[in-house]
Structure formats: structure tokens, C-alpha cells
Write a structure and sequence with these properties.
The chain has 14 helices and 15 strands. It is α/β, with parallel strands linked by helices. A seven-stranded mixed β-sheet has the order 13-12-9-10-11-14-15. The chain has a four-stranded parallel β-sheet with strand order 3-2-1-4, with helices on one face. Strands 5-8-6-7 form a four-stranded antiparallel β-sheet, sandwiched between helices. The two termini are 36 Å apart.
Length: 376
């Protein structure tokens, strides 16, 4: 990254998102950046960050047309330089209406809506990967049809049920055999879920910012060796170099002509001895602060790309990042002389909480505030 840090004002249009606060904290690492947010509620968590200079609320029940007009007027009034959506609904909405906003503000790299819709839909993504001969798990759309039953008979168990849209492991279930699977399918809606072969191996993820099919910056991460297996995002992660992961992700980015941020969920298939595509999360990710600690400030390079600056990302550092609870446990063992060899970390979320603690207090006492949300 170049040494100069230009001054500019950023507006986050989906400040109610849980990803808004870590994005703000990433941007705050650079001087001369003024951060404002728009939210669909009066008291979003991000509002309490000391790095937010101004908060705006758009009225509950606004139509899509009214929301566009509201944001257009705000961009001009506040003299915003960069409009930076952080979550999937926000990214798609800004992309859909980009012709309205780019007259007044710089936009970061973002995908075309049709490409976005393909990437976030697990069924469409799996079909596309097969067509492009890219490695992915065997995947079947759940339908109440004879062909579904026939295809399922040839399926290798165990399997996973997944909603075609969703993230964070929500709605995913594991089934050892067909009998248990059929029981699990009784309470779900056809067309909304996929059945996917379970791959014995380990998860490995890649976070990317790309423009016109070219990777501008990336990090690769996996769960710490002692982290528990599961479907929820890992809080304790190791950043690792992995050429095979980067090669696969680069192929996907190029074939999709992808622009924007995206977090790839990947898995190493022990049987096939290869990395396979699981899903694409087309938003900033829960571990964006970990990526920052590893040396890549994704929100900042997205803003610099929006402003037309040459982005020079020098790569990332192999390191370990842990959540606050893990950091406190490790530090306690160290202070009491019970620290085991191998139990260490290079950075943790604790340092970000200490620097910007008001949102944490809001988490504890936020139920005292009314948070009426608009319907998007």
C-alpha cells in the first residue's frame, strides 16, 4: 500500500449491519478519513463507535424510490466522497441503483447484480462451477419430484442440508444416512434448500477484493488447530499461505469478471486431495479485523480503488488472530505461569474493544433503546 493517505469522507449506507462496526474500525486505522453512517434504526451498534462522525436515519416504511432520493440528497449535502456498502443487501441495492449514485460519489468495485445473484445463491453457484469445471461438492436442489428421488439414490452419504441463501452456518444440518435425511426434509420448503455431499477434510477461506476479474488484495485463513469443528464462523484463525487456494479463487474471480469484496468459503477434500468451492459471501466478513491485523485493510483499499488510486497490496503475514475470550484465557495462563507451548496469538479482538469500547457497552445495555427497523 502506498504511504500517502488522502483525506476523504466515507458513508456506509447500511450502518445497521453487524459488519458495519469492524469496517469502521478498519477505516479508522488510517488518518484523515471521516466516517458517516446511514441506518434503518435509530440506535445501531455502529453509531456508538468513537470513529463515527455523523449518524443518519432513514424513515421506517420508505419506498425504494424514496430511499434512493433520500440518499442522493444526503450524498450532496454531506459532500460524501465514497459510498461503501458493507452487507449483501446493501451491496446489491447500491449496485442496482449505481447510476443514481455515481453522479455524486465514488463507488468501490462492486459486482453487477446478475453476477451477484449467481454468486450468493448456493444452487446457482454450484451449477455454474460444474459448467466451468471448477471443483465443488456434489450438489442437488431439494424438490418434490421423481428426478430428485432418483438423483438422491445415487448420493454418497453423509450429506448437508443448506438454505440456498444464507451465511454464518445458519440453517445447515448434517445427516449420516438417507433415512435421517428424509425425516429432516419433511419440515423444509422445496426449492429453498440444497443437499450437498459432506467433504471429510478441513475448511479454508479466502477473502478478496477484486476489480474486473483481477485480485487487488487477499488473505487466506483457516481455523486454529485446536478450534472445534462446526458450521459457524471461526473466531480463532490462522492466516496461511496456500497457492492452490489462491489459484482456484483467482480462476473464479476471472471467470465471473468479479468486482468487489467477497469471502470464499472453501474446503479441502481429503478423498479427492483438492480444494473445493463451497460458497461466496459477497460482503465484508466477520473476520475483517483479523485480515487487518494480518496486513490487509480491505475497507481502505476498497475506498482507494473507488477514488481511482492505484492499489498496491503487499500481501499478508502468516499469523494467528483470536477472539476476546480466547485472548483472555491465554493471557490468564501466561500470568499464572500455566501457559502451554503453542498457545499463543499475534493479535486479538481485545485490542479493538479497548480502543473503541462504547459499542460493547451498548451490546450490554442496548435493550433500553428502541430500535424500530425499516422494511427493506
Amino acid at each position: 500500500m502506498s504511504a500517502t493517505s488522502p483525506a476523504f469522507t466515507v458513508l456506509i449506507p447500511d450502518g445497521e449491519s453487524p459488519f458495519a462496526l469492524p469496517v469502521i474500525q478498519c477505516l479508522a486505522r488510517k488518518p484523515n478519513i471521516r466516517i458517516q453512517i446511514v441506518a434503518n434504526c435509530s440506535w445501531p451498534r455502529a453509531r456508538f463507535s468513537k470513529y463515527v462522525s455523523k449518524h443518519h436515519t432513514y424513515a421506517v416504511g420508505k419506498s425504494d424510490k424514496e430511499r434512493v432520493r433520500f440518499l442522493e440528497e444526503l450524498l450532496q449535502k454531506e459532500e460524501i466522497d465514497v459510498l461503501l456498502p458493507v452487507d449483501e443487501p446493501g451491496v446489491r441495492w447500491v449496485s442496482e441503483h449505481r447510476s443514481h449514485f455515481e453522479k455524486y460519489v465514488a463507488l468501490p468495485p462492486m459486482p453487477r447484480t446478475e453476477t451477484f445473484d449467481k454468486a450468493v445463491n448456493k444452487w446457482m453457484l454450484a451449477q455454474w462451477a460444474v459448467e466451468e469445471r471448477l471443483p465443488c461438492p456434489t450438489t442437488l436442489l431439494f424438490e418434490d419430484s421423481h428426478s430428485f428421488s432418483t438423483d438422491l439414490s445415487a448420493f454418497k452419504f453423509p450429506v448437508l442440508i443448506k438454505p440456498i441463501r444464507g451465511s454464518g452456518g445458519e440453517g445447515i444440518a448434517y445427516f449420516e444416512n438417507k433415512t435421517r435425511l428424509m425425516l429432516g426434509l419433511e419440515n423444509i420448503t422445496e426449492g429453498d434448500y440444497i443437499i450437498q455431499s459432506y467433504l471429510k477434510g478441513y475448511d479454508i477461506d479466502c477473502s478478496v477484493l477484486a476489480q474486473d476479474g483481477v485480485v487487488l488484495g487477499y488473505t487466506i485463513q483457516k481455523k486454529c488447530n485446536d478450534a472445534r469443528e462446526g458450521f459457524t464462523p471461526a473466531g480463532n484463525i490462522d492466516f496461511v499461505q496456500h497457492p492452490e487456494v489462491f489459484d482456484l479463487v483467482s480462476k473464479v474471480v476471472k471467470k465471473l469478471d468479479w468486482s468487489g469484496i467477497v469471502h470464499f468459503d472453501l474446503r479441502f477434500d481429503e478423498e479427492a486431495q483438492e480444494i473445493k468451492i463451497i460458497e461466496m459471501n459477497c460482503r465484508f466478513w466477520a473476520s475483517v479485523l483479523a485480515s487487518l491485523s494480518a496486513g490487509v485493510n480491505f475497507p481502505y483499499i476498497a475506498c482507494r480503488a473507488a477514488l481511482g488510486d492505484t492499489v498496491l497490496c503487499e500481501g499478508f503475514t502468516e499469523s494467528r488472530f483470536v477472539n476476546t475470550a480466547a485472548a483472555l484465557r491465554i493471557l490468564l495462563k501466561k500470568w499464572t505461569g500455566r501457559n502451554n507451548v503453542g498457545h499463543f496469538f499475534d493479535a486479538s479482538s481485545l485490542e479493538f474493544i479497548r480502543a473503541d469500547f462504547m459499542p460493547v457497552l451498548f451490546d450490554k445495555f442496548g435493550h433500553f433503546f428502541k430500535t424500530k427497523k425499516a422494511i427493506n
